[in-house]
Amino acid sequence: MQIALVAHDAKKEDLVNFSIAYQALFASHDLYATGTTGLRIMEATKLKIHRYQSGPLGGDQQIGALIAENRLDLLIFLRDPLMAQPHEPDITALLRLCDVHNVPVATNMASAELLLRGIWRGDLDWRHSESSDE
Fold first, then answer.
1. Domain containing 69 — which CATH number?
2. Known binder of ligand: residue 50?
3. Any catalytic annotation for residue 60?
4. What is the mean pLDDT of residues 9-17?
5. What domain count does the chain have?
6. Could you tell me which PANTHER family the record lists for this protein (predicted)?
7. For every residue of the chain, which 3-state class applies, written as one string?
């Protein structure tokens, strides 16, 4: 599976710790991330991550392009709901693309846990088999 990892500044440490906890699962998938988030995860784990620009510099849009091209199976985007983001339109567009292209997205730790446990059990294999039918 192709999985993208994105986090707002206040949630980066949470995503790093989450990535450490699920490192064994993540290691067998292709990972993508926005700039600083990807760097911090790579520094804390042995995971290989394709890094894009930071979110405000276009990284959200680069991840969105993966979704639009049917090259992403899952997005974990830990958002900070208590802080206004100057690039909110890009964030909204990214989440809308997930809805349009039926890509599962987690915006908080609870939904991220559920999705990864689903991957562990093979519950999300339909994304992988659906794209191979094309």
1. 3.40.50.1380
2. no
3. yes
4. 96
5. 1
6. METHYLGLYOXAL SYNTHASE
7. CEEEEEECHHHHHHHHHHHHHCHHHHCCCEEEECHHHHHHHHHHCCCCEEECCCHHHCHHHHHHHHHHCCCCCEEEEECCCCCCCCCHHHHHHHHHHHHHCCCCEECCHHHHHHHHHHHHHCCCHHHHHHHHCC
Question: Among the options 9, 14, 30, 60, which is catalytic?
Answer: 60
b/e 23-54 (16+ beta carbons within 10 angstroms → b): eeebeeeebbbbbbbbebbbeebebebebbeb
37 annotated as ligand-binding: yes
**Banded model confidence at residue 19, pLDDT cuts 50, 70, 90:** very high
Residue 94's domain comprises: 2-129
Is the pLDDT at 80 greater than 60? The verdict is yes
Predicted confidence band of residue 87 (pLDDT cuts 50, 70, 90):
low
Q: Is 122 annotated as a binding residue?
A: no
